[in-house]
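Bumping with the actual sequence this time:
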Amino acid sequence: MHGHNLLRKSIVPVMSAGALFALFFAACDSDSSTSAGNDFIAVLGNHRLTRAEVAARMPGGLTPDDSARFVKAYVNDWIDTRLVSEVAAGELDMSEIDRMVADYRNTLIMQEYRRRMFETHAASIPDDSVKAYYEAHKTEFVLDRPMVKGTYLKVPDDARNLAVLRKLYRSNKAADADKLEKEVLSSAVHYDYFRDRWVDWEQIETRIPHDFGASAREWLKSNHSLDESHGGFTYLLYITDVLPAGSPMPVEAARSQVVNRIINQNRKAYDAELMRALREKAEADGRLNVSIEL
């Protein structure tokens, strides 16, 4: 072990992070005529770690200090890995290791091939398929937070049309909605008209510096509007519809989950068909013979 420590100290001398960074990249940027035999950071037996190899694995955008830490960590890991491998090779059954490596390699090849084949042949999920799946499994898509519809505005307290906005933001008339759309252009800092779509209550709650209490359900049960001033701004909120937590998700909110489920189903079906076709071809070619019924 003492020899190993000497080896490490001789390969990675103690120096400041900045000095190590400068030395490392000066070597990497040196004249291309420098022989590969001299362009190394560490040598262990027949193994060599070059500066170019470390540079190729270094993430971009690191500061000099972070780059120096990366170099040290990479070199230390390189040395430890090979030292352990040298010792382990004499004490482990390497044929078993080779078998495990081969099995793992084959598993990776199979997974990557299946993934690429599916992505090559996968079709986009049409809306009618999403809706059909949603309707068939509606009870499985449940809200863990309330969703709401309504109108939200953040307006400076000194806005000249604040009184007009206060009148319009709660109106249910289509004509007033058009007027509100025009009025907010000259004064509103934030404006969201979401009466035609469901929005996660948390997205609204976090915009307003108001204490809604521990239970969103309780606040929404007894409140439909809010008109408060904080820090020079007036916050106007009008809720037209509420879906409490525990309610079935609207199809638009469940869409991403539905699509993922359909994709996973399609992947399994495609994968089964792919493997069946590969087996049939192997049997037809005489490359596959199985003596038991599978």
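The tokens above came from a reply further down the thread. The radius of gyration is 32 Å.
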